[in-house]
Amino acid sequence: MKVFFNRLNWASQVLLGLFLVLATLALHNYRTYAPESRYRLRTFYDDAYGFPVYVNELDFWPGEPTISGSADGVAMALGPAGIDSSGVPAGTATGTWGRGPAGIDNALLPLPTALAVNYTSVVEQRSYGGRVPLPRARLDSVLAHLTAHPEQYQSMYAYPENEPGFELQAGLGPGGLVVVWLLGEQYQVELARAHLPVVPTTWPKSAGVNPNAPFSSAETEPAPPARRFAELRRQVGRAELAHLDSFPHTSPALLDSLGQRYRYRLRVLGQPLTLPTLNATFLDGEREPLAAPGGDAGLLGRAVPDGLHYTVAGPALRTHERSTVFEPTETRRAFARVRAACAPGEVLELRLLTSGEDVRVELRCRRLTVALPRTITYVGPD
Amino acid sequence: MHLEPLLLRYATRSFHCPGTSPALNALLGAGLVPANTLLLYWYLFYYEVSENDQLFYAPVLVTALAAQWALLAVVSARPWRGWFWVAAGLSGAAAGLAWASYCWLLAFGRGFNH
Fold it and tell me: Is residue A8 a contact partner of residue B28, using CB atoms and an 8 Å limit?
């Protein structure tokens, strides 16, 4: 051995020493390795749109009272309705909800009845928190459908020992949108959807913020600038067009980030309007038909309109269906200007003037009229 | 400073240590270099690695490879010496490319989220 070592030059000795050191380290690494032990807590997530989300809390909670002494401990006693859970002996403690970042485990657990979330949308620089109730009736109906039509819910992989099992997935969106899905390899069923209130942001760390203090919107935290929200909306639109993975095809209901309601009268002038066809979408993501006697939508007390969809009943016109999309920033700014100019108690009027292919939109009160030139109007097919 | 002996040694390429076997050292070293790189990979990158650290896969490993080939090439005798320099040069160029692309990724190629 010593003779062999003496016949090596210094470089080979160095390489051999390196080999021994690395082999020791790698063996030690191999001996001490336990799966998923390195990065136990993952604190950065992407939301359904690919935006970064900082998750403080994301726990599924069972509503059932705990049987064991521990607050997190849950004894498995009941199976979901319509699912054969006879393979699971009753009274077996199979795990805990409320542990870990997502609360999803391959151990069998009773279906939770609530989801406690606190997360920060980094794009919006604000946090949302609260509890999302998971209605038992919805779970039961989904599971009953799943039992009745097993061919629609084919799984590629079985759980260990062929136990029935489901995963719950929570999608966190900007605007406090939280969607909970029942998840399989081939299917994804929406269980619940909620809008969470804004809570004081703990990330990035801001000094002097008490996260337990109740949130009051205007005083404690200034609203983000409107430009940022418009940007966010565009990005969400792009994400929807791109058909992102694990994303429902319903359009997300976004809160008006300014948290404001506007009081105005919506009036369509010009071409005669077929009565039931005036639909308005608003910045909080809702879409509703407006009663339009003579093109007048009546008095509205709600968010800024996002767009109008209507049908023009002109016999000479080649096309009839139209949708007009407002620029939210511009509309808000116009609202602020006109509201400052109008008399107290006066109701603003948002006017849509159609003439032929031309559409003009203006916001007006008695003293001031502001045109919204960057309104986009699509003239759809007949 | 009396650098003459060292310079002479470099100039004449007489790195051969008396009493050692050139063939044995060259062959053993040529085996140890990939083995060490593999061990380094096992130690650093085989198990769970954070997504950030996965960017270091290529630059670290190829740099280690190049350094070991160069070390081996410095002390080896002909004819292995030339081939070791070839391996060191190739892996060194690859390491340079890997570090350049890593820096490029770090500066410009970040994801939408980060």
Answer: yes
Triad A74, A80, A86: Cα angle to 5°: 85
* Averaged pLDDT, A92-99: 35
**Is B56 buried (19+), middle (13-18) or exposed (0-12) by CB count in 10 A?**
middle
B6 occurs within a structural domain: no
Question: Quick one: CA torsion of A182, A185, A186, A192, rounded to 10 degrees?
Answer: 10
Give A285-329 pLDDT, tens digit per residue: 667 777 655 566 666 766 777 777 777 766 666 656 777 878 777
Residues B37 and B35: their CA atoms lie apart, in Å, by: 5
Q: Please name the residue of chain A whose CA is at the shortest distance from the CA of residue B43.
A: A26
pLDDT, position A186: 60
Q: Which residues of A fall within a CB distance of 8 Å from B113?
A: 46, 50-52, 122
Domain encompassing residue B47: 20-107
CA angle B61, B45, B52 (to 5 degrees): 95
Contacts with A102 (C-beta within 8 Å, 6 or more apart), sequence order: A58, A170
Nearest chain A residue to B27 by CA distance is A12
Smallest CA–CA separation between B42 and chain A, in Å?
6
For chain A, the distance separating the N- and C-terminal CA atoms, rounded to the nearest angstrom, is: 92
Number of domains in chain B: 1
- Residue A87, both tokens: 């393979």
Could you list the beta-strand ranges (E) of A63-187. Answer: 73-76, 92-96, 114-121, 126-133, 167-172, 177-183
Give the best residue of B15, B20, B80 to mutate against chain A (max A CB count within 10 A). B20
Average pLDDT per 10 consecutive residues for chain B, totaling 114 residues: 64 60 89 97 85 84 97 90 96 97 81 48
Whole-number Å distance between alpha carbons of A194 and A92 = 32
Answer yes or no: is B38 within a domain.
yes
Q: Is the pLDDT of residue A273 over 90?
A: no
Tell whether B76 is covered by a domain.
Answer: yes
Q: Which of A274, A239, A276, A275 is nearest to A254 (CA)?
A: A239
Q: Judge contact between A101 and A41, C-beta under 8 A.
A: yes
The answer to whether the CB atoms of A19 and B112 lie below 8 A apart is no
Q: Mean pLDDT, chain A, as a whole number?
A: 64
Strands A92-96 and A73-76 turn out to be antiparallel
In chain A, alpha helices (H): 2-6, 10-32, 136-148, 217-220, 226-241, 328-341
Neighbouring CB atoms inside 10 A of B24's CB total 14
Q: Within a domain: residue B14?
A: no
Instruction: Look up the pTM and report it.
Output: 0.36
Average pLDDT value over all residues in chain B: 84
Radius of gyration, alpha carbons of chain A: 29
Q: What pLDDT does B101 receive?
A: 92
Q: How far apart are CA A181 and CA A172, in angstroms?
A: 11
Torsion angle of C-alpha atoms A259, A233, A355, A334, degrees rounded to 10: 40
